[in-house]
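input
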Amino acid sequence: MYIQNGVLAIFSKIKEGFWFLKSMRVHALLALFIIGIIPLLFFSWEILNTYDSTATNQRKAEVQSQGNSLANLLVSSGYLQDSTIEEVNTEVLRLANLYEGRILVIDNKLNILKDTYGVEDGNIIISEDVIKCLKGSSSVFHNNHANNIEMTIPITQTSSKEIAGVILMNFSTKNIQNIYTILYKKTTVLFVTTIILIFIYAFFYSGVFTKPFLNLKKAIGHLTEGYMDDEVKIDGFYEVQQISISLNQMLTRIKNLENSRQEFVSNVSHELKTPLTSVKVLADSLLMQENVQPELYREFLIDIADEIERENKIINDLLSLVKLDKTASDMNITSIKINDLLELVLKRLRPIAKKNNIELIYESYRPVIAEVDEVKLSLAFSNLIENAIKYNVEDGWVRVSLNADHKYFYVKVSDSGIGIPEEAQDSIFDRFYRVDKARSRGTGGTGLGLAITKNAVHMHKGAIKVYSKENEGTTFTVRIPINYIA
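output
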């Protein structure tokens, strides 16, 4: 066990030592370097090999042509019968010197009639290639190590087409190899120089490439130090600019949320304190008076009950929000009829609507059975419909409709109310946010209702959208899957 832990610790330290292998700059540097060096290496190798093969083949073809011409000269001059013809010997020597090689003229009895080196004249040659050539199979052999090419060319009689002899040619390719060596050296110099330039370019470009990300890291570090009011602005690639824009949007939302929370603490403190203060004032007033009439007691107690109910609502909303913050494992999913659920919610809210002289309209296009948490979804629909009633105009209306397709069911809550300003529509689902704080207090609002609704809808893997214009009304659309997916 101790040994295993020690080995793991060693590997961990080694891994930490090679942290730079995870660096974006190192990866960019290697990528640019490899992309630049591989094509250059292939190109250099291809040029050298192309030259070598092309030059060698060209030399072979040239010597072959000269050898055929020499064979014709040997036949036409009768050199095979008389090898002392000076003009032919001169031509053979010229050709051998031209290609820095050696030429042997051999008859069909393997006698060497002419050796340009003057070593084998009059001797007999025993060579497999020569014998094969006399039988009609010429050969070409390239010796790379010796830098020479050996070639056999048949000497064919013009009239009978019989092979009367063989020309054995051995010529040097040193000049080709010398040029190849010069090209290799120059290519190597060019290759090394280009590698250095590519490395320098890759090094600086990788720095330019990663600089915006380093600036982004510094900006985020600056934010973590507490400078949340500073805007992140990174110049560079388009993608980095988009990241900085998204980061600024996130910061704006965080700041708005933080401001809302701070405001909520202040508001809730005030909201919780106000009913208690009112209750204390009312109770003290009763205690300070003697011989208080029963009617006055009743009036004060009604006011005290209203203040207690107001505080109770604030506390209940906070508790509801806390419960919805729990994980989806707390969902109590059952298969229920959504039509009945909405009818029950509307039944509970009709007294409030009647009190405010608001007409409640319910439209159900088809029976809908879905897998939902009845309590949480009932709370979400109650908040939406109650808000539509509270923030409506006199003699207004609220229309609730239910529809469904094969995958989702849709609940739409529309009203003829005062509407929501366009600039506030992105924030109404934020916790503790209230569009009009004075008006919300007048209706008993705490700024938690829509946050509770959104949480409940999202816990069902659904979506909620709002469409509103000031003084023209508001429509909330809720979409929830019929079959719950955990």
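quick obs: The radius of gyration is 50 Å.
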